[in-house]
Structures are given as structure tokens and as C-alpha cells.
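---------- Forwarded message ----------

FYI, see the GspL cytoplasmic actin-ATPase-like domain-containing protein record below. Original note from H. follows.
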Amino acid sequence: MLHSHLLYLSSEYVWAYPWHKGGLGEAVRFANDRAGVDAFMDYLDTQPYGPVYLMVDLIEEDFQRITLPHVTGRSGRRLLARRLLQQYRETPYRYVRVQGREAEGRQDDIALLSALTNPALVQPWIEALELLRAPLAGLYSTTLMSPSLVRKLGLADERLLLVTQQSAGLRQSYFLDGQLKFSRLTLAVDRDGAPVDVARETAKTQQFLTSTRLIGRGEVLHTVIVAPEATLDRLEPQCQDGAETAYHFIPMDEAARRTGLDDAPALADTVLLTLLGQQRPATQYALGEARRYFQLWRARLGLFSASAVLATATLVWLGINIWRYTDATSATATMYAEADQFDKRYRAALSTMTPAIDKTANMKAAVTVAQLLVRQGPQPLPFMAQLSTALDKVPQIRLIQLDWKITPPAAPTEAVAGNFLSTASGTPLEPISSLMLGLPVAVPQVLRLEAEIMVPPENYREVVNSMNAFTQELARQPRMVVEIVQQPVDTRSSVKLSGKAGGASGGVESKARFILNLVWQP
């Protein structure tokens, strides 16, 4: 599928070059007639081939420069297609390219139109490829490929005339600022069999370019001639620099070296074909339905590539799974070996101990009790967390003392007011009832809190607001009851409110202290 063929078509012959591993193979020549088409079909039918690239070098190739209103998007493309169809109605092989905009006036687009005006020279070969269902990648022109040769040769003159000798004759292509503007093909020999005078043909081309305003009067036309050394030796005496013409000569072996050819050819055909094989541009002349087999080939190649990627990914995934299975099997065997060692050590340890057999029901009950203690046993830490949350939101409060106690459900609050879990004197406590441990249900918990408000006591409003905010924040906690034992300020209407305010020291004799009882009900 990856063996391509490059075809070079002139008015007399067609050369078929296989393209493999980045180079042209040995060419096979066919006459440009019905017998040659049949011979070509027999030849290609016996060869492994992939995409086919057809390059033409015909004298029946026309170039026109036009200006169009600057229109972008779909409307612009339709305008170009309509103008191209109006210019070349008799041929399906048309080409258009916008080359910039005019510097003055409306700044219209400058477009280059081109077409093969004698499609009968090309159609038999395209029809033969369709009969073979060969993937025709595109139809190309040596003239439209010459900009690639100009870039390879490093030519950067503003007004450049490139002269190359090809199978069809002497090709002269004019470039302005690196863009192709005009091309003409003349015979390499005249009717008498003598070589054509290149200097005279260059003068004719320069006269035409001047008449079409592609080059101004007095401007120098740089003419670059690419030919073998022997031909250049013959042409140099003929081509003398003039007031408006400057000749430059590039040997064919230099052009071949820059293109990537090992051997210098006699004609520029293989140089241009090599550039085509290296770059593989999109088709230049429209082919329409003739490219459908190439599109199918490209889709098939994409499917094959996707299948190869999928197969590679599957093999990688399979290898990873096999490696993981092997690793897991090894780890399982190691774990079984370790478990056997632990069992042996456990049995050896049990053999040295005095047998102590207990009932299963008692062990189950002990586990249940332990779980209940963990789940329902009274703990001060949740209380402390709720208190810390409230203190973070009211930073004016400073704790002085905390007393935490629990109240069994069966006993009144007054009876257990002093039942704390520890005493200051260190006297041993009596056995604790299961109710105190949260069995069978969780017990209420009480936290006695003594704190002060870190604001000036003479600022009674701030003291009251801080106290209210703190108690409200505590009351928001679920199942929490807040009881105010001592207010920081006595706000009863029957009591006289007194104190110092506005003194020199700004302080008072006592702090704004208060006492709260926080009761958590399960």
C-alpha cells in the first residue's frame, strides 16, 4: 500500500517512476497514445502500488492574472469558482490561487488562474487509472511545482525568470516577490534542429512582461538558467548581461544535490518529480470524482493504522495484566506462607499456656459491652469541640474554669451534683454504676463554665451583646440546653446599675464575669 508511483506526462510520452524509500526508481516510458495507455495499464496491473501522482508538462497550459473584489469566507470561494469557470469552460482541470491584494484603490484581490486547455491529452490516463481503481492522489503541473524548486535553490530576487530544460521543451517561469505570475513553454530546438537561442527567448518574455506591467521599464530581470555543465558552457557566451537583464547559471548537479538526488539528470523532470515525492502536496488541478479511489485508499489506510494501534494497545494491556497476575500470584503465595508461620507460632504459644476455656456467650457479651462503651460512654471531648466553636465566633470571651460531670437518668440532678469522675484529694471512688458509663443508654452531661468578657466593664452594652452572642451560639448546638447561673451585669429594672466610666486609667475594679451550665441531653 505504501509503494507510490509518480507519472510524468508530456505531449509525446509518459514516464512512470516507482517511488520507494524516499527516491525515484527506474523509469518506464510509454507513448502518449492508445497503445501506450494499454501498455501502461498492463504494466501498472503487475506492480504493487499505492497512491499515484500525475505531473504534466504541456504547452497547452494557460495562465491568467485577474483582480476580484475582496470577499472572504464561502462567498469568496464561490466567487473564485465562478470566475474560474467563466475563464476556462472547456476543461475540468482548473486551478486558482489568491496571491495578495492591490496596494491602491479598493485593494482588490490578485488571483492567478491556470488550466490545462487540452484535456484530451490527460483524460485517457486518468480514465485508465480509474479502470484499475488506482488511488490517484492528484494532478500536478511542473510550472506550479517550480516555486518549490526556487525555494530549494535559495533564489530570493524580486523579479526572477527561472529557465529550465524539460522533456516538453524550454520552460520559462516568471516570479515576482517569490510568487508565480507567468509561464511559457517553447521548443528546445527549432525547425532546423538547432538549439533555441535562450537569450532571444528571454528577450521575448521580458517584452511580454513589460507590456503586461509585470515588470517596469528600466527594472532588471534576473534570469536563472538551470542546465547541465555542458549546456551552460554553450549558453554562457550567448547570454550576456544587459541594462535590464542579468543572467545567473546553476549547474544541474548543484540543483540535484540541493533537491536530494544522487545523480545529476540531464533534464529538470526528475528534479521536479523528486520535489513532488518529497512534499506530497494536495492536488493542484481539480479532479472531482477521479480522486474517489484515493479517498477510499486513505480511509482504508486509516482503518489499518487504527487497527494496528488498537492491536498494539491490546497486547500492551494483555502484557500488563499477565504481569499483574504473576505478581499477585507470587504475593498470594508469600502471604499464605507467612500465615502458616503465624499459625505455627500461635499454636506454639498456646501450647505453653494454661488452658482457660470460657463460654462463647460471655465473650460475645464482653465485646458488645465494649462496643457500647465506645459508642455511648460519656466523653468530654465532643463537649469541648462545641465550646471551642462558640469561642472562635465570640473571641471576647476568656475561660476561667470548667467543671464536667454526668447525670444518670434515674437520679435527680441535685443528688448527683458532686459525682465527678475524679477528686482533688485523690480519695478512691466507689464502684461506678453502669448508668454512669452510658449503659444501657447514653447519660446526660453537664459542663459548668465560668468565664469573663474581655471588654471594659463600663461598656455595658458591649458586655450584654457579647454574653448574648455567646449563649446563642452555644444554644444552636443540637440537644444543648444553656442555663445562665450568673449574669455579667445585673440588668433587672429593680436594681441600680453603677460603676466607673471615663476615668484616667480607663479601667474598673472588677471584671465582667459570668457562669453558665451547659446540659447535653442524649
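H. also flagged this: Residues 294-343 form one domain.
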